[in-house]
Each structure stands twice: as C-alpha cells, then as structure tokens.
Specification:
heterodimer; A: 247 residues; mainly alpha; elongated; B: 259 residues; MetI-like fold
C-alpha cells in the first residue's frame, strides 16, 4: 500500500514521457533512466564515480568525527574550554559551509584535500554541537549518584558521562554524515571533476538527461541508505534511550 | 558578587578570546608568519568591507540574496505547512507521500537546479524554486510530526467537549503543533540560506554567493573574506534571531530542536 503512490507517479511519468506529453528530452521515461543506470553501472563509470564520492565521504566523515566528538566532550567537561571555543562554534555553525570552499581552494589548491575538508567541516560542527549537548543535558542526579558511589575523574567520565551522552553523540554522527554528503555533492557539482555530483553537472551541461537522472537517483539512494542504515544501527546499539534527534 | 560582575567573569573568556585571536592574526599576517596572500590582515579586510559597502556593491548583493531567500522561504513555508498539516491529519495521504518524500529529501538541493530548470523558466524563478526544495521538505516533515505528537487525550477531551472540524483544528491541532511548525520554519529558513549561497555560486552573477565565488576567481582575497563575513553574519542573525523570537512567542515550550 505504502508504495502505491510512488508506483503510480512513476507510471504517470512513464506514460507522459512516452506519449510526449512532457518533453522526453528533459523528462526521459523512468524505464529509460533505469536502463541507462544499469548499463552505465555495468559498462560505464557510474560505479567508479560512486566509489569516488563514497571515498571522499569516508575521509570527510573520519576527519570530522574523531576531533568533533573529542572536542565536544572536552567542551562538555571543561568549562574554560567551552567558554573559549563556543563563540567560534556558534558563529560558524549556521554559516553555509560551502562558503569555505574558495578559501580552502586558495590555501590548499584545487584538489581532493580542499573538497574533502569542505565536507568535513559541515559534519564537524554538527558533531561538536550534538556531543556537547549530550554532555550538558546529562541528568545532574546521575552525576551525584555516581559521585556518591565513589566515581570520580576518569571513572565518572567512563561510567556515567560517556554512556549518557552516547545517544546524542550517535545522533550527531548521523546528522553529520548526512550534512557531509550534502556538501560534498555540492562541492563536486561546483568544483570537482569527478564524483556523482559532478556527473549530474556534466550531463546537465551536455543535456544527456538520462545519465543526469541516473546519477541523481544514485545520490538519492546513497543518502537514503546512509540515513536509514545509521538510524537502524542506532536503534539497535543504543537500545536504552530514545533517539533525541528523531523528528 | 553583583550580577553584572558575575556575568563578566563567566563571559570574559568568550569576549577576550576572539579579540586575542584577531590580534594574533593581525600580527602574524603583518610579520609574514601567515601568508598575507591567503590570510590578509583583519584590518585590511575591514577596509575592503567598508569600500564594498560604500560603493554600494555589497548592498546590491545582500539585497539580491535576501530577496531570493524571502521568496524561497515563503514558497516553502506555505506549501510545507499546508501539506505537512494535511499529512498529519490524514493517514492515507501520509502513507502515500511518506515514501516519495523519504527518497527525495536526502538529495542535496543543488542537484535539483537542472531539474527545476527544465520545469520552470530558468533564471531567477528556477533559482528560487531550487532554494525552496529542501526547506519545503524540512517544514513539511516537522509540521507532520507536530500534528502527530499531540497527546491523544487532549484531542479526545476536545472531542468530548464538542469541538469538531474547523474548531478542533484551530483550537487544538494548530496550537498543539505550533512549536514544531515554528522549529520547522526556523530550520527551513536556515537551509534556504545555505542552498541559495550554493546556487548563487553555480549559476548567478549576483548575490552574496556569487560575490564570494567571483572574488575567488579573480583572486580578490580580501573581498572573499568580506563576503564570507557578511554571509556568516546573515546566517547568525537568522539562526539566533529566530531562536530568540521563538522563545518569546512560544514561551511555554522547550525548543524541540535543542537535542
């Protein structure tokens, strides 16, 4: 039942395109797109270009996740650190991270480091803020109970603070991964010469629309798989708490 | 301790550290520790920002971007709240549209630019519609969730007291979902700014994003920093201004986006 609407929409599109109610040049039939998608994946470079995007995403995510979580935790437990750093985080967080791209391009030159770092910064700030939020929203009663039972310093951190903050950290990582994908694809669209985002751009410029839609579909599938997959993983690993980022 | 002294003590690091950073940057660029070609002195950037503002270039770009964001946001808000409310109220509609939305939503909006360009006249309209895409989904999702999270008991109580149809909607369902709608609008506005900058970089010669990108292409580094500063300022004002507005208008609810 729940797939009835998408199927009907696709069928309508198919018919409209085949009967040339809409221009097949701009809106090729879904079956044509599917055929091109499979064909280019097997014979062409769609698979390779997807791997390029995935590799960039993996690098960007790793670059953002480790320092992001560490900084968030540190800001959560050390007040002076938080006071010193929070204004910068607060200032940069709402800024579109794509604006950092030209700066990274002049400093690092046109190439992978600049692309990957732009993606990484998008994820980094989200991860820091979620992690910090997780530590800050910790129930003070838990802290007191932990202290009363003799947990201090590293022990208190490991046994009380970290487990309590874990759901928020995971949510931050999940949102961060999504943001990294969005900004990486935008970077590819704008500046790179490879990756799925660039494929959409190139085939748009060449007006080879079936290939453009094929790359478009792959980006959507990638995004959907990542968000759904991580959400399922989160529900599975962190069974003791509600997902604080579920809307 | 007096309240003001305490405030100062708590915020002194927050106030001092940016000043120290700016001072260190100024010094490092002046002495050559940082390459001035990449990191011009803050004072130089400020001068360039002043020039851009004085000759009107900056205001033109700023106005263009803000008008685009306003149109895109209006489009996304009307459609998003409307469809979101409808999806929250009618299960059938929700079940039908959910899978469609779930597939489209994670696609970065910039990729819609070509597609939108096929559907509507390219140029300003395509730019605004593309900017509205992600905001629309965000607002629709949050609104739907806002309707769905209303306590069933409240709805049933209203039904028992005879509230039906329009009355039920205006007296119970709308106020109940308002905090979520507002949060959706706030996040949607933020996203509209993010997307408009990206779209301006790709396809426009006007607007703050275009100013940033064109300054890069002709290597006017100071103007790049100036454009970045203005974009950051607009982002911060939209984000924190709206959060403050929400706290003021809807004081009875905790911010649902806090987590």
């Amino acid at each position: 039942m729940s797939f009835a609407v998408p199927v009907v929409l696709l069928a309508l599109w198919e018919i409209a395109s085949r009967l040339a109610v809409v221009s097949p040049r701009y809106f090729p039939a879904p079956t044509t797109i599917a055929w091109v998608l499979v064909d280019r994946f097997v014979e062409g470079d769609l698979g390779a270009q997807s791997l390029v995007t995935l590799a960039r995403l993996a690098c960007a995510f790793a670059l953002a996740a480790v320092p992001g979580v560490l900084l968030g935790l540190l800001m959560g437990i050390a007040r002076p650190v938080r006071a010193a750093i929070e204004p910068y985080i607060a200032f940069i967080f709402p800024v579109p991270k794509i604006t950092l791209l030209p700066f990274l391009l002049i400093i690092l030159g046109v190439g992978e480091p600049a692309f990957v770092l732009t993606g990484a910064t998008s994820a980094f700030f989200q991860i820091v803020i979620s992690t910090l939020g997780g530590v800050q929203s910790l129930d003070p009663r838990l802290l007191e109970a932990g202290r009363n039972y003799g947990a201090h310093g590293a022990r208190l951190f490991r046994k009380v603070i970290l487990p309590a903050a874990l759901p928020s950290i995971f949510t931050g990582l999940r949102l961060g991964l999504g943001l990294a994908l969005v900004s990486l694809v935008a970077v590819e669209f704008i500046a790179a010469k490879s990756g799925l985002g660039h494929l959409v751009y190139r085939h748009w410029q060449m007006l080879s629309t079936p290939e453009m839609y094929a790359a478009f579909v792959l980006v959507g599938a990638l995004g959907l798989a990542l968000t759904r997959g991580l959400r399922a993983l989160q529900a599975r690993i962190l069974t003791w708490q509600d997902d604080p980022g579920r809307l | 301790m007096k309240a003001s002294t305490r405030w100062l003590a708590e915020h002194s690091i927050a106030i001092v550290s940016p000043l120290v950073l700016l001072g260190a940057w100024e010094w490092a660029s002046a002495t050559g520790a940082l390459r001035e070609a990449f990191f011009p002195r803050p004072s130089t950037i400020a001068v360039h920002l002043g020039q851009l503002a004085a000759d009107g270039t900056l205001w033109g770009h700023l106005a263009t971007t803000l008008i685009r964001v306003a149109w895109a946001f209006a489009l996304a808000a009307v459609l998003g709240v409307g469809i979101g409310l409808a999806m929250g109220l009618w299960r059938r509609l929700r079940e039908g549209l959910d899978p469609v939305f779930a597939v489209i939503y994670p696609i970065p909006s910039i990729l819609f630019l070509p597609l939108v360009g096929f559907l509507v006249p390219p140029g300003e309209i395509a730019l605004v519609v593309t900017t509205a895409v992600t905001s629309f989904f965000l607002i629709a999702f949050t609104t739907t969730h806002g309707v769905r999270q209303i306590d069933r008991l409240v709805v049933e109580a209203a039904l028992h007291y005879g509230a039906r149809g329009w009355r039920l909607f205006t007296a119970v369902l709308l106020p109940g979902s308002l905090p979520f709608i507002f949060t959706g609008l706030r996040l949607g506005l933020g996203f509209a700014l993010i997307v408009v900058v990206a779209v301006e970089i790709v396809s426009s010669s006007r607007g703050l994003g275009a100013l940033l990108w064109l300054s890069w292409q002709i290597l006017k580094v100071e103007d790049m920093y100036a454009a970045f500063f203005v974009i950051a300022l607009v982002g911060a004002v939209l984000y924190y201004g709206l959060a403050a507005l929400q706290a003021r208008l809807l004081p009875w609810v905790q911010d649902v986006a806090d987590s």
